[in-house]
Amino acid sequence: MVFNENLYMIGSTLLVLGYTCATVRGSDSFTYESNNKKTSEPACYGSTYTSFVSLSCPQPEVVYPLEVYVGAKPNSTGCLDFENDYTEHDKDLKEKCCRNINETTDCTGEYNGPNRTLIIETCMGLSLCKNIHVVWESTSNMSCSAEHHYKSTTNYAYLDYFCIKKATIGTPVRNHRYQSRNSGMFYLTANDINSYKSGMLDRNVTCSITASTNLSTIEVWIMDLRFRRESLQKVIIYDGSTGKQLGGSNHTRPFLQPISSSSSINITFETVRSSDEFLWLGFAANDAYIVIACDVSDGTQITGDVEPLSQEKKQNGYMVAGIAGGIGFLAVCVIIGFMVYRRIKANKTNRKVEDDRRNLPKNEDTPGMNNVSNNVKELQ
User: Closest by alpha carbon to 164, among 186, 191, 135, 146?
Assistant: First the structure.
């Protein structure tokens, strides 16, 4: 049964990805975010219940977890066994054993146990991922130096991760056009990055990905692909007349999708709402920027990779807006005051005329009216 299942996975992978012999680069070759790579502070494994690993990125950036690592200190360090907890009297020892990585003497390595997937999936797309439980590995399964003696299990863990700018992440929505900065990456996620944890949405849209020069070749990176085996999601990359449907194998590490050398491709998204399926794709072109257009009509504006305003610029903007608003408010007050003044003055004038008329003697005509009447009679 296991043998048949393995055959199914191998066969479906080759069929879906559409290649039998290709050079596939993995996460080690994904260098586009190398300047944004970070390493978390390690935390100790054991009964230290307040010891957790945390990942954080400044706003507006999100976490893309790369690898989970475990490490063991040499016995000569005097670190406590995992059954024992560090007390307030062990602050210096805890700092040395749980907060520092010594690449020379420590035995470290990638953690590929079952909890790796859980950690990666939990932190994917968040700005802050905290309270990650510390995992461990048997040192007998690691390539530890023979010069030192280590305990039977590792005593700390940490992660490497990227902080990716939200300005470089778009969504396949009709009448949307995106442009990368220089030869950097631009990403598409099946859901808005701020709602990435909500999974897939209903979509029926085709996006063209075009390099700025015909001499450039587009790279398609699968950053996160988690579809169920019987998934209804349909995402197809069209490279010329050849279409390759994504699926079959899930990826939570950067994976270069094999395509023919091309400066222009199309991707069709025919997806259905699903809270437990996810998709994050990355695109780049050598020595060129790329433009992504999703079923656009004429006049659609380009959304570029724009740097967010600095705090200083924001404060200056608030100050200018405050001054302008104050001036506008004063102007409105002056206009209203002038109108009220005119109305009060007009009312006073009208009241004065009425009062004068009331004070006239009875049967006394208004001065000058007798002369007017006599003139009228003479004309008759």
Answer: 186
Give CA separation, 36 vs 44, 66, 237, 268, 282, in Å: 25, 12, 28, 30, 15
Do 175 and 299 fall within a single domain?
yes
103 is in which domain, residue-wise? Answer: 34-166
Q: In this structure, are 98 and 193 located in the same domain?
A: no
Tokens of 135: 């995992």
* Rounded Cα distance, 235 and 351, in Å: 81
Read off the DSSP letter of residue 366. P
Say which amino acid occupies 63.
V
Do 199 and 267 belong to one domain? yes
pLDDT tens for 83-123 read 788 888 888 998 999 889 998 999 999 999 989 999 999 99
- Return phi, psi of residue 139, to 5°: -65, -20
For the entire predicted model, the pTM comes to 0.71
pLDDT in tens, 143-165: 998 888 998 999 999 999 999 99
**Do 251 and 146 belong together in one domain?**
no
68 occurs within a structural domain: yes
177 lies in the same domain as 132: no
Average model confidence (pLDDT) across the chain: 80
